[in-house]
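Q: Convert this sequence to structure tokens.
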Amino acid sequence: MSDIQSFQALISTITDAIGNRTLDKGLQQGLNEQFPYDGDVAQAIRQTCAQGMAQGWMGRHEHRGLRYGRVIEPCTPLNGYSVDVVDMNDIAGPHHRHPGGEIDFIMPVDPLARFDGQGAGWLVYGPDSAHSPTVTQGRALILYLLPRGEIEFTRR
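A:
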């Protein structure tokens, strides 16, 4: 089994738990309870992302201090979600809109690092939300789950 196949199987644990739930703060709370940052599944995701970035099969692109890449295109085994992973260090990324919402898993490399003001764990943005993703107080890896892979980069 390849690294990406193993990673997809790991992520399917999350997308199976999400199912058809609405992307909202209730889902965020549920993910943080079911898959806490210090739990086995979350730590396996964190370790795989750190290794994938180090080995180069994640984060294949770099632009203006961001290292990023789509690891898995939207697919049926992940209930139509795509998976992207980004390495950010005290930087704001490009403003974008989430037509179907966005589920983020925040993995601080530096213990105090925050993504959009939040530390380690799950953060959920609902449909039609938008932001300039921002990491402060150090470096963090961020995993993005996007319904149908939808993201619209916008000017602000």
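The radius of gyration is 14 Å.
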